[in-house]
Amino acid sequence: MKILTLLSFFTAYTLTASVNIEDSAGQFFSSGHTNNWAVLVCTSRFWFNYRHVANTLSVYRSVKRLGIPDSHIVLMLADDMACNHRNPKPATVFSHKNMELNVYGDDVEVDYRGYEVTVENFLRVLTGRLPPSTPRSKRLLSDDRSNILIYLTGHGGNGFLKFQDSEEISNVELADAFEQMWQKRRYNELLFIIDTCQGASMYERFYSPNLMALASSQVGEDSLSHQPDLAIGVHLMDRYTFYLLEFLEDIHPASKTNMNDLFKVCPKSQCVSTPGHRTDLFLRDPGSVLITDFFGSVRKIEITMETINLTDPIKQMEENSGNDVQTENNTYVDQLPVSEIIHQKPKQRDWHPPDGFILGLWTLILLVFFKTYGVKHLKHVF
Amino acid sequence: MMVGMERNQYDAECFLLYYLFSSERRRGKLAALSIAAMVILVGVPLWWKTTQTYRAWLPVAQINELAKLQLQLSADVEVVFARGTATPEQQKKVPVTQTQDEDHAVDEADLSLHRLSESPCGSLVIYVIPESSSLLPENVNVYIGQRRTALLRIGAQMKVGKTLKQLLAHLEPRVKQILQVMSFSHNDITAALSDRVRFSPDNKESIADSMRAFKSSPGYEITFSLLNPDPKSHRLHWDIEGAVQTYIQPLLTKLSPVANFSLDSQILYYAMLGVNPRYDSSRSAYILNADSLAHVINPVEARLGSNAASSNPVLNFLLYVPDAHHSPLYIHDHKKREVQTNAFHSPRWGGIMVYNVNGFYQTGTNFPVDVNINMAKVMGVFLAQLRLLLGVQSTAPPSSFQVAPCGSSGLADWELDRLMWSRSVENVATATTTITSLAQLLDQIGNIVINDNIAQQVSSAVTSLQLAVAELEVGNLGFALQYSKEAILASEKAFFDPSLLHLLYFPDDQKFAIYIPLFLPMCVPILLSLLKIVSEVRQRRREKQAKKD
User: Fold this and answer.
1) Any transmembrane segments, and where (chain A) (predicted)?
2) Which of residues 66-95 of A touch B (CB under 8 A)?
3) CB neighbours of B424 closer than 8 A, spacing ≥ 6?
């Protein structure tokens, strides 16, 4: 508690300092970020958790439409619904009944799929502690001027979120991960949205600056799903994300809607649960934060006023004089010796003495024989 | 009598039994005591040792020392007085070095002066020339050369004064001003330390500067892309290899102490800009205003691609040739004026230039038309943008200064020095923050394993940091930058090591749930027997007391 009051004093001080910066910088540079990233995670598997995958894919679709490129999105889906055996419409994931909107599309780029979505991998992506062989598309390469959107959905409880039906991430671990991100200045501002049961418990323990959090339900409440589709047979979306998607469909890259409107999404009458939000760690006033600061990727532009006068003519690239390295002619080894396979004779198997089982069987037969007919018949054998 | 004998026997048996029992009991007590001793003396230390996580030793004291981060930067300045600037009296006190010829043009003088004294990186030479000199035009007091020299025009003899002290007092603020332009100023250093120091600048330009340039990184990737949305009309030829070799490579070679650069280029066909330009009939051209420029980059970025293997920041330079139906295409700034360079850049991303080719052919020619792109013009713009994005450019010098153009390599020596100063400070600050937060993290979370290699990286980072700070104090800029780069590499490697994952968070109730089923069944009999022994001892003592009384 003491630390929280100290932190709020500190943030109040920096808020005044940053307000001065804002006034002098003008609207253009007021948000302080130059690039946007998104980490979208669906943590549940199995066919009946179709709605969680649909949730994540809808947010993915909105974020892409508003401008964040695939190279800046880390999409983690714990199960494959589009190509699931039980999907009556393969290669599609619908978010609305009557199959109005296919959120799977044909340019989805999933970075972590199936069993790769684990607590460990999620924390590694956030803190950046990935093995050196990880490709660029699986990394969160944000810097101190990146605004990051983190969206989690799945099954959760009071203080934890379930991954893959076998492990959990606790709110303390998540808060520590965000603190490590802050220490290394891996974000400028971070928006955390969670759509699970008792989602508000996941942001209770945050203590790093510049975090804003939204959750679909308070502690003790369940987040409910929206509507089932009778043809597909499962619930297609969760209520909170459904209304969030509806809200985002009205946003275009140049819109000036701010965060206060986002907090009003899905009131209790529509959502049955009470959505919550947390802005005390955020330095700017939420009313001045645009939706596109997190969901879109509006670039800052400066006109280039100067040019350098280059007068030298282009040097002709001289040919590589002689080949220093002897180029060897490499050939592939015959990968598939087809001729050998076709004309193969059956291999002679080597003879092995009979196995224990065969021996035992014969011994049994002999014993039975001699038991029935008496030992004196042995002399007929030998 | 029978009864007596039976009773004796009975007594004897009781006594025998009692005796047997008591030795049994004593053995029992000894057994319980020895088991308890075993558990406490051997079991508990064994359990403690085996459940301990391996933590190698870290130089925490030195890290805390570094965390205070008191940096002292010193730049060597050599001031040379020309003939006629100092009175004989002053000359006696100041060691006279040499004189120079005043009839040449200022840039030739600068070059010849440079050859007189080759100054190592980080240091400056200021030549003081008399007021009556004709080298510099009227309103210019200072000329900053391409290398590390500057020419300073001194005030008239009368104004300056006779004594050495007055001369130096006159010179000091001017020399300081030159230093602030050529080496580093307070704002630059504060901007470089923006990780640790809350940066509250006083003007818009400094914020824009700090947001525009890329953060210090060991390597960068530069990608040149030619976007041709209309291959049916234009067949474009660009000699990118030659242009890069001639124009860009000298700059990158000069910047090689700062970072490694890797270059690639590509041509993208059918790549549209994503915004529809307006047709302006007054100029009979298509216009892109400054407001719509912000939405140009995103649709293109998806198609640009990058090197999957490295995590270095990427600088993208795009050359867009508009299609025949939308030619010519001009960019207007916020004040609706045409932009000379027809180019714009985005902070920490790269730059885009629009190159109109409709002037190269007449309407009615057979499409597709072969077009050779003038690489000198294109590279001039890209080079300017590259300088901005790398942080070479700084705030404009004061009005009485004249700065020499930067020459064929695109970078003056003092600009390189300036970059090196801010990079060294930034590296030192970042490495210190990384190391201190790593030490703090490892301290806070007790069950992270600290391997030997991490401890080694941390120690080497600390050593490099101490060396870098020492070199900065002395003024050896080259060595300071090198050590600071080593410090950054080692500290990043230690911080981002994949083994440091704090997955071992156990809430307290889970810890109880794990240990109770293991230890409780074992501990209960031991505890109870110990309690029984203690109570018996106490009882016997009480009996003894009673017997005595």
Assistant:
1) 356-374
2) 67-71
3) B468, B472, B477, B480, B481, B484
Alpha-carbon span A170 to A315, nearest angstrom:
61
DSSP symbols for A197-250: TTGGGGGTT--SSSEEEEESS-TT----B--B-TTT-SB--BHHHHHHHHHHHT
Sign of the Cα torsion A118, A124, A125, A131 reads negative
Position A33 pLDDT exceeds 80: yes
Do the beta carbons of residue B110 and residue B404 sit within 8 Å?
Answer: yes
B235: tokens are 């067949």
Rg for chain A, CA atoms, rounded: 32
Residue type at B415?
Answer: E
In whole angstroms, what is the distance from residue A162 CA to residue A155 CA?
6
A319 interfacial to chain B (CB closer than 8 Å): no
C-alpha distances in Å from residue B213, one per residue of B153, B209, B419:
34, 6, 11
pTM for this predicted structure: 0.77
Degrees to nearest 5, angle at CA B299 with B296 and B301: 95
Return the H-helix or E-strand segment holding B306. Answer: none
Which B positions 366-385 lie with beta carbon below 8 A of chain A? 375-377, 379-381, 383-385
Tokens (6 digits) for B23: 């030795």
Residue in chain A nearest B305 by alpha carbon: A71
Question: Is-contact B456 B62, C-beta < 8 A?
Answer: no
B455 alpha carbon, distance to own chain's centre: 21
Which residues in chain B are closer than 8 Å to A21, comparing Cβ atoms?
Answer: 200-201, 207
What strand order describes the sheet that includes A167-170?
A: A156-157, A160-163, A167-170
Higher-confidence position of A135 and B146:
A135
In Å, the largest CA–CA distance within chain B is 152
**Which candidate, A241, A240, A234, A263, places its Cα nearest to that of A86?**
A234
Nearest Cα of chain A lies from the Cα of B187 at a distance, in angstroms, of 15
* Cα dihedral across residues A281, A283, A288, A290: positive or negative: negative
CB count in 10 Å sphere of residue A236 = 24
pLDDT at residue B387 is higher than 80: yes
Q: Which residues pair with B153 in a beta bridge?
A: B129
ipTM of the complex: 0.77
User: β-strand A112-113 against A73-77: which pairing, if any?
Assistant: parallel
Record the tokens describing residue B335, joined without a space: 């004040």
Q: Is A381's pLDDT higher than 70?
A: no
Q: Do B346 and A69 touch (CB under 8 A)?
A: no
What is the predicted pLDDT for the residue at B395?
Answer: 62
Q: What is the pLDDT of residue B10?
A: 73
Cα dihedral sign for B40, B45, B50, B53?
positive
pLDDT surpasses 50 at A17: no
Chain B closest-CA separation from residue A280 CA (Å) = 20
Q: Give kind and range of the element (H or E) at residue A158.
A: none
The CA distance from B180 to B422, in Å, is 12
Rounded to the nearest 5 percent, the helix, strand and coil shares of chain A are 35, 15, 50
Pairwise CA distance, residues A24 & A30, whole Å: 9
- How does strand A167-170 pair with strand A160-163? antiparallel
- Test A32 with B502 for CB contact under 8 angstroms: no
Which residues make beta-bridge pairs with B126? Answer: B79, B150
Residue A371 confidence (pLDDT) above 90 = no
Structure tokens at A278: 């947390």
Confirm if B430 and B488 have CB atoms less than 8 A apart.
yes
Question: pLDDT per residue over B364-374, tens digit each?
Answer: 677 788 888 89
Whole-angstrom Cα distance, residue A168 to residue A118?
9
CB atoms within 10 A of CB B138: 5
